[in-house]
Design brief:
alpha+beta
Length: 123
């Protein structure tokens, strides 16, 4: 049985709207603005890509990014945050940011066993 449902890929960037428009020109679809720091692209075919403002964003140097570079992260929707938290820890996740304000923020950040960040988001 799956722990979570795949939701989207979120790309950190200095300016989310122009990057969302770039990908819209490549993939088609509809852009929806969540706030000034977050845009979603609902691409044709059903994929969803988010663009998140990171004011100190530094593009990775391909093929070798700096050791502290976050190239992207994955978001997964869960129906029971506490249960999903326990289950991802059991399969090898490392907590990175669990301060969800008692559920007010609606998401928590973890790293996979290789160190890639992902979020559990309350659905």
């Amino acid at each position: 049985m799956a722990i979570a449902t795949y939701t989207l890929v979120a790309l950190d960037c200095p300016e989310p709207e122009p990057l969302a428009r770039f990908y819209q020109s490549v993939l088609g679809g509809e852009i929806r603005q969540y706030d000034e720091d977050w845009y979603d692209l609902y691409a044709e075919g059903g994929a969803r890509i988010a663009f998140q403002r990171a004011t100190d964003h530094r593009p990775p140097k391909w093929p070798q990014a700096a050791s502290d570079s976050q190239q992207l992260h994955l978001d997964f929707t869960v129906t029971d945050m506490e249960k999903a938290h326990e289950e991802v820890l059991a399969v090898g996740a490392t907590p990175l940011d669990l301060d969800d304000g008692g559920g007010e923020r609606g998401w928590r950040v973890y790293a996979d066993p290789a160190g890639h960040p992902f979020c559990l988001c309350q659905g």
